[in-house]
């Protein structure tokens, strides 16, 4: 029997790698965690979720101060933003969270942490900082990086990605964002609110192209109302310097070319897997352009080598990476044949209003040929949303022909938090009748979840057939008031 230095080795100290390292070490496996960056936490902590949401919140507060009169408060003359202070706050927040992802913490759990370069020598052995280390099982969790397409002239200008934008010392006066996905749209609204003139360029005719058109268009309408400009259905022909500014030539689907200029250029055109320099071919691991090829148990072609998180080309969310890390622990350490199931994986785009989803949206359901029904409820009918002046948006509940939930989308205030009730309900198989009858505190935004579920039952409970039956059996006398002509429908 072969003897290895470690039971399990993990390459990458982001969400997936940290989950595996923590679980494996606490279960008694001799665990090695390797990270090429000088600190643990991965892209999410240092260049992604944490800094972006910190920036978004600062921008939201600044926006509310500038529009204090909406809440019956005095109009405030707000000075321009000192972006260096925001950048310092971002680093302060990162530093606090970093303590939880420290080398010392993982050492206390029983995992050895090594910082440096690593590549495979064979299926069980890696070169780590010039020395050889072996493990019975390996996990590749190296994440992803911004994809930079071969746009003519792009390399000749000083452009930004998510790795640079949160450490800017000064706020750009204007910015072009290439990409209309979640990163591009979140940053567009945040920087626009902080005073930057933002233009978004998208290849698709819709922002947030994986979402339902009506929901995405509502987000775009909010951003446009706040001052963000859009060129959708546009392809970038070239980029060139224009003095201190950047010039981007676009070819429009509607015909013709146009040049746009700005002080800063943010490239947010997707992600690529971090597999370079790992020499995965030496380990017999198959890699495709989108990422490492894995089976439903997250095993590569070499069954003792796993790939979790962004690097396998699946869902590029921190919570998905953490979930996949748990799948790896089950298979690699506990030897329980557990497979991934993304049916009820939620996600959220943190614009204002937020857009959160779980399961199938309406477009995906109809594209799959599913006979579905869509129930909606507006935040304009939610009393808490009215009190907070946050009435834009709605919830959509997608049902199949048997009235079973296929998915939920929420566009509205704190949608990312509101979707959590559906995460529990859908994963736990909770009946819609249970959700509709559950007592929610008043007034809360979460009442919208109860209301949309109730919309399935109200037409049945309050139907003419039921009324006639009750009149017959209980001698009910019917209406006590007739509406005047032109009155709207009674609320349920």
UniProtKB/TrEMBL annotation:
Record-linked InterPro entries: FAD/NAD-bd_sf, FAD/NAD-binding_dom, FAD/NAD-linked_Rdtase_dimer_sf, Pyr_nuc-diS_OxRdtase, Pyr_nucl-diS_OxRdtase_dimer, Pyr_OxRdtase_I_AS
GO molecular function, a single term: flavin adenine dinucleotide binding
Cofactor(s) listed in the protein's UniProt record: FAD
Amino-acid positions noted as binding NAD(+) in the UniProt annotation, renumbered to this chain: 179-186, 270
Domain annotation FAD/NAD(P)-binding: ranges: 6-325
Domain Pyridine nucleotide-disulphide oxidoreductase dimerisation residues, every copy: 346-448
Disulphides: 44-49
Cofactor: record remark: Binds 1 FAD per subunit.
Binding site for FAD: 53, 142-144, 310
Any Pfam family hit: Pyr_redox_2
Keywords, in A-Z order: Disulfide bond, FAD, Flavoprotein, NAD, NADP, Nucleotide-binding, Oxidoreductase, Redox-active center
Assigned protein family: Belongs to the class-I pyridine nucleotide-disulfide oxidoreductase family.
Protein name: Mercuric reductase
Species of the source: Desulfosarcina ovata subsp. sediminis
């Amino acid at each position: 029997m072969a003897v290895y230095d470690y039971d399990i080795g993990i390459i990458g100290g982001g969400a997936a790698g940290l989950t595996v390292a923590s679980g494996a070490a606490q279960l008694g496996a001799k665990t090695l965690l390797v990270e090429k960056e000088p600190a643990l936490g991965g892209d999410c902590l240092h260049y992604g979720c944490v800094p972006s949401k910190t920036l978004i919140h600062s921008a939201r507060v600044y926006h509310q101060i500038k529009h204090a009169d909406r809440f019956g408060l005095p109009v405030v003359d707000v000075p321009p933003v000192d972006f260096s202070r925001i950048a310092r706050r971002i680093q302060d927040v990162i530093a606090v969270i970093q303590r939880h992802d420290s080398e010392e913490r993982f050492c206390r759990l029983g995992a050895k942490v090594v910082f440096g370069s690593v590549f495979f020598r064979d299926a069980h052995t890696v070169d780590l900082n010039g020395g050889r280390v072996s493990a019975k099982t390996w996990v590749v969790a190296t994440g992803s990086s911004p994809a930079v397409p071969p746009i003519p002239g792009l390399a000749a200008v000083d452009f930004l990605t998510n790795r640079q934008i949160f450490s800017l010392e000064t706020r750009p006066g204007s910015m072009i964002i290439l990409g209309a996905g979640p990163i591009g749209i979140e940053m567009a609204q945040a920087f626009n609110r902080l005073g930057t003139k933002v233009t978004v360029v998208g290849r698709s005719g819709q922002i947030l192209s994986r979402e339902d058109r009506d929901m995405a268009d509502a987000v775009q309408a909010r951003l446009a109302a706040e001052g963000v400009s859009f060129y959708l259905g546009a392809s970038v022909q070239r980029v060139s310097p224009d003095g201190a500014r950047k010039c981007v030539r676009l070819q429009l689907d509607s015909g013709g070319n146009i040049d746009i200029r700005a002080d800063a250029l943010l490239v947010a055109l997707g992600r690529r897997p971090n597999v370079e320099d790992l020499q995965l071919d030496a380990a017999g691991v198959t890699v495709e352009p989108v990422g490492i090829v894995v089976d439903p148990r997250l095993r590569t072609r070499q069954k003792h080598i796993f790939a979790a998180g962004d690097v396998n080309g699946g869902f590029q969310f921190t919570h998905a990476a953490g979930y996949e890390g748990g799948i790896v622990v089950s298979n690699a350490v506990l030897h329980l044949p557990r497979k991934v199931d993304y049916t009820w994986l939620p996600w959220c785009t943190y614009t204002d209003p937020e857009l959160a989803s779980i399961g199938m949206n309406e477009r995906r359901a109809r594209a799959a040929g599913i006979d579905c029904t869509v129930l909606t409820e507006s935040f304009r009918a939610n009393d808490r949303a009215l009190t907070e002046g946050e009435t834009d948006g709605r919830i959509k509940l997608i049902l199949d022909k048997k009235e079973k939930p296929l998915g939920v989308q929420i566009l509205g205030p704190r949608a990312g938090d509101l979707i959590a009730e559906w995460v529990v309900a859908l994963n736990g198989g909770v009946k819609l009748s249970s959700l509709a009858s559950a007592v929610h505190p008043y007034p809360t935004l979460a009442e919208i979840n109860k209301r949309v579920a109730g919309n399935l039952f109200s037409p049945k409970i309050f139907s003419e057939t039921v009324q006639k039956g009750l009149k017959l059996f209980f001698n009910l006398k019917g209406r006590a008031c007739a509406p005047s002509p032109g009155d709207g429908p009674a609320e349920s």
